[in-house]
């Protein structure tokens, strides 16, 4: 039938079951192209029956599995081809759904006369069909293996939700559903056999594949395209009740109410999460996320405790540090005149002006930091290994062990583009694909090129921030008091390094947020262009792109401060310039570690505050504004489907951003923890709020999420492993090259006493003097000579941070032997620490099995039972088919025997 021809001939109309249903003629499909063989029915249009918590059609029998919302175009003042096209596509789509066996019922809005709600019901036969298509696992018999009781049960029971409130679910052995073997499954009640989450998942599967337009060989289908085109305004499964009021409906399980009171409410911050109920209500994908977040937070408690002890140790010893005392001593640090740190405009300054900074540095740069860095390298290995074990338990309990191999179907967007044929290398049969090998290479190359462009853009922005740091440092240095004749330290004076570091950190954070906003859209566009086959492949591809960008975006400034700043600066008479104009930044005489700590604090704190604003305030404000604009002030006067429409949609990638936020935080906790032992504590506090904020958000402010299956955390697992491996190298390099720990150890063991002195004891006295080289001010060039010489009449030399020979030495201003000792010690430290830690990580990974023994036994038992049940079922089918033939053969044999006897 031509798409432009009007529908002709008789139309079969099947009325609903209820006599009091009013039918709307405008909802009769009068579209111009209908699905071949469709049995057309009027969609029942009913009024609200006064039961706001009802989860059923108007007849009170058929459960609502999904809701579609659209705006009636006949209420619009303007007419046009766009409106007619939307109406035609919607009618064709609904007819396609009915052809696939789905039942629909339309209800007008009680708030907005323009809105209509299409309620979707999945009959039993349709559920059985698509349960088999999706390989959904369903119970076959109760689990007869005794579960091992944990020795920690006596403790955890005080932090777990009460079983009187959230009953413990019965454990079953499960098998993929097969319609012809339904007698083998544990079916007590047809209405309860498929959970609401399963029903919604199957309904969404159908909605994503029902066509809405066919033109020649081109078929357009999927609810997502209709939502993007404005044909429907929303599509969502229903919450089962209000979150803060228990439903009075007898058939309502009130799971949302239980989740809010036992999980999402702030009073439950100390309780363990009801993961089984979360999985049952929201699906495995949401359940795995909250299981991972809870496990990560629990492991952070151990790291936070050790990090806090390290911080307290540094705080208690900051006043007793010998080298800090020398900096603050008026007779030592007060007598040392430092060279200007920029050309011409910067003044000379006394070392004791950095007294407070040196004390703050002692808090983070001490021997406890080394111990904590090694501990964190072991901690991250234990975290990943124990998570694998816990994840294996969840995979078995939630029936996702073989999910990726059996259940995941191609994305509708992928199926719509399949126009080429190829031979499947496994089945050796023809299959359709969306592009050739060359086309796939072209798309992937385009994606890689775009990602590299944005990475280079981040690097360019980082260079811009570095130039800003150099320019602002010069401006702050001009205002630095010159002619400091007093010998007392300036305790209230803010050094140019600190002022520059704080302002640059804030600017870096703002640039990070701006680039994130644009790159998110670019990454989604690239991934859509690559056209991955399944949703898991889509999310993994997007994950790698986003994390690569975020890694460079968030960590580039930290890597610059840790490993580049102050490393190539030359010396006062011959400085090194960036871009031929700006003199490279120097570290504070105490080192760059305190600046790295400042950078981490600003980015971690700012990111946590910004994310909480986005996650809490924005959805809440949107819902308040929506209710105000629609003049709805009470949920009691409107039905459940309309209450849910007033909530916010989570979005296609809502969970993706939650993972990304936590993985970026994981990077800060592990990659730079040697410079900031309080990072795990800050992450722990943030995550305790994060769990409840995320729970509160999806339970109260968002529509119910379409349940999805998930086996694990996807591409985030190898990313975490990569970060854990990189963290060992970065922390070893921070201790070696950013902190002053190695130079102090070299001085303490090699240069602090005379080699042949009797009764010699090692001491740190004189360490500051040994780390500062001497420069003759007459060796300044005209371009570098400071302008404030008149303040220092008798000044002939100044000091700078380096290990170089003094003026008058045969190799003046060249590196001393002390410098080469320090370099050798740093390299040796990195090699030894890395090998020890990596060996320990390898041993732990080998010793700790990924799957617990008890889970392996349960998997074997389940597979055995499945094989037995399937074998018996197949045997019954074969016997049933062969019985007539066998009876006929036996009858013929008896007749032959009788004839022979006669």
From TrEMBL:
Q: Where is the Anoctamin transmembrane domain?
A: 278-862
**A matching Pfam family:** Anoct_dimer
An individual GO BP term: calcium activated phosphatidylserine scrambling
Enumerate the subcellular locations listed in this protein's record, separating them with semicolons: Cell membrane; Membrane
Q: Which InterPro entries match?
A: Anoct_dimer, Anoctamin, Anoctamin_TM
Q: Provide the Gene Ontology terms for cellular component.
A: plasma membrane
Task: Kindly list the residue ranges recorded as spanning the membrane.
Answer: 289-315, 367-387, 451-476, 496-519, 542-563, 662-685, 719-739, 817-839
Q: Which UniProt keywords apply?
A: Cell membrane, Glycoprotein, Membrane, Transmembrane, Transmembrane helix
Q: Which domain of life is it from?
A: Eukaryota
Membrane-topology descriptor:
Multi-pass membrane protein
* Keyword Transmembrane helix attributed: yes
Which residue range or ranges hold the Anoctamin dimerisation domain? 56-275
In alphabetical order, the GO MF annotations are: chloride channel activity; protein dimerization activity
Query: What family name appears in the similarity comment?
Result: Belongs to the anoctamin family.
Indicate what this protein is called per its UniProt record.
Anoctamin
**Gene that this polypeptide is encoded by:** ano6
């Amino acid at each position: 039938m031509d798409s432009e021809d009007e529908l002709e001939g008789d139309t079969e109309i099947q009325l609903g079951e209820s006599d009091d249903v009013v039918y709307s003629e405008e909802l009769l499909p009068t579209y111009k192209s209908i699905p071949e063989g469709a049995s057309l029915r009027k969609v029942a249009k009913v009024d609200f029956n006064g039961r706001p918590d009802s989860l059923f059609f108007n007849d009170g029998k058929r459960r609502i599995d999904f809701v579609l919302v659209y705006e009636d175009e006949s209420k619009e003042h303007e007419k046009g081809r766009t409106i007619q096209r939307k109406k035609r596509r919607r009618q064709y789509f609904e007819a396609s759904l009915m052809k696939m066996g789905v039942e629909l019922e339309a209800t007008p809005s009680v708030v907005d006369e323009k809105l209509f709600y299409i309620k979707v019901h999945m009959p039993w036969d349709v559920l059985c069909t698509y349960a088999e298509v999706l390989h959904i696992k369903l119970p076959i018999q109760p689990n007869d293996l005794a579960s091992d009781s944990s020795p920690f049960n006596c403790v955890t029971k005080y932090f777990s939700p009460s079983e009187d409130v959230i009953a413990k679910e019965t454990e079953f052995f499960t098998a993929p559903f097969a319609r012809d073997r339904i007698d083998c499954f544990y079916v007590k009640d047809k209405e309860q056999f498929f959970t609401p989450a399963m029903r919604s998942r199957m309904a969404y599967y159908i909605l994503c594949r029902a066509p809405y337009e066919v033109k020649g060989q081109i078929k357009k289908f999927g609810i997502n395209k209709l939502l993007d085109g404005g044909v429907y305004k929303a599509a969502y499964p229903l919450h089962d009740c209000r979150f803060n009021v228990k439903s009075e409906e007898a058939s309502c399980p009130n799971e949302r109410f239980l989740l809010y009171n036992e999980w999402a409410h702030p009073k439950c911050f100390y309780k363990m999460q009801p993961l089984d109920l979360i999985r049952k209500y929201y699906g495995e994908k949401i359940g795995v996320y909250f299981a991972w977040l809870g496990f990560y937070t629990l492991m952070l408690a151990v790291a936070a405790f050790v990090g806090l002890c390290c911080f307290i140790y540094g705080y208690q010893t900051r006043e007793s540090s010998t080298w800090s005392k020398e900096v603050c001593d008026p007779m030592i640090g007060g007598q040392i005149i430092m060279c200007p740190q920029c050309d011409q405009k910067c003044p000379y300054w006394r070392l004791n002006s950095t007294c407070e900074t040196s004390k703050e540095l002692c808090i983070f740069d001490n021997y406890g930091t080394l111990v904590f860095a090694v501990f964190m390298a072991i901690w991250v290995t234990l975290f990943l290994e124990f998570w694998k074990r816990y994840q294996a338990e969840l995979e078995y309990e939630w029936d996702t062990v073989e999910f990726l191999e059996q259940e995941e179907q191609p994305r509708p967007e992928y199926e719509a583009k399949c126009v080429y044929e190829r031979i499947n290398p496994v089945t050796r049969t023809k299959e359709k694909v969306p592009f050739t090998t060359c086309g796939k290479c072209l798309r992937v190359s385009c994606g890689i090129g775009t990602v590299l462009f944005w990475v280079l853009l981040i690097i360019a922005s980082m260079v811009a921030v570095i130039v800003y740091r150099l320019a602002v440092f010069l401006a702050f240095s001009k205002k630095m008091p010159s002619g400091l004749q007093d010998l007392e330290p300036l305790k209230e004076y803010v050094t140019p390094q600190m002022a520059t570091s704080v302002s640059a950190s804030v600017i870096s954070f703002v640039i990070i947020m701006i680039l994130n906003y644009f790159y998110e859209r670019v990454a989604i566009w690239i991934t859509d262009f690559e056209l991955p086959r399944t949703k898991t492949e889509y999310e993994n591809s997007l994950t790698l792109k986003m994390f690569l960008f975020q890694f460079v975006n968030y960590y580039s400034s930290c890597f610059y401060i840790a490993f580049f700043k102050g490393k190539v600066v030359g010396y006062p008479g011959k400085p090194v310039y960036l871009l031929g104009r700006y003199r490279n930044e120097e570290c504070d005489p105490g080192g760059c570690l305190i600046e790295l700590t400042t950078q981490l604090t600003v980015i971690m704190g700012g990111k946590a505050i910004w994310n909480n604003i986005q996650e809490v305030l924005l959805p809440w404000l949107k819902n308040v504004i929506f209710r105000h604009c629609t003049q709805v002030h009470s949920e009691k006067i409107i039905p459940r489907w309309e209450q849910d429409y007033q909530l916010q949609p989570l979005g296609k990638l809502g969970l993706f951003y939650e993972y990304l936020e936590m993985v970026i935080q994981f990077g800060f906790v592990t990659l730079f923890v040697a410079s900031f032992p309080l990072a795990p504590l800050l992450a722990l506090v943030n995550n305790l709020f994060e769990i409840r904020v995320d729970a509160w958000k999806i339970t109260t402010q968002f529509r119910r999420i379409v349940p999805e299956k998930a086996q694990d955390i996807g591409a985030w697992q190898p990313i975490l492993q990569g970060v854990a491996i990189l963290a060992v190298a970065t922390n070893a390099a921070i201790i070696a090259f950013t902190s002053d720990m190695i130079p102090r150890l070299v001085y303490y063991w090699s240069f602090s006493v005379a080699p042949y002195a009797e009764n010699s004891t090692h001491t740190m006295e004189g360490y500051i003097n040994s780390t500062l080289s001497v420069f003759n001010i007459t060796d300044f060039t005209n371009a570098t000579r400071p302008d404030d010489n008149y303040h220092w009449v008798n000044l002939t030399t100044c000091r700078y941070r380096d290990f170089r020979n003094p003026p008058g030495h045969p190799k003046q201003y060249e590196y001393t032997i002390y410098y080469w000792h320090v370099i050798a010690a740093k390299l040796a430290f990195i090699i030894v620490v890395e090998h020890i830690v990596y060996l320990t990580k390898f041993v732990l990974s080998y010793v700790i099995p990924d799957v617990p023994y008890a889970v392996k036994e349960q998997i074997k038992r389940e597979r055995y039972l499945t094989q037995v049940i399937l074998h018996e079922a197949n045997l019954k089918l074969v016997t049933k088919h062969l019985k007539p033939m066998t009876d006929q053969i036996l009858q013929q044999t008896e007749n032959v025997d009788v004839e022979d006897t006669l």
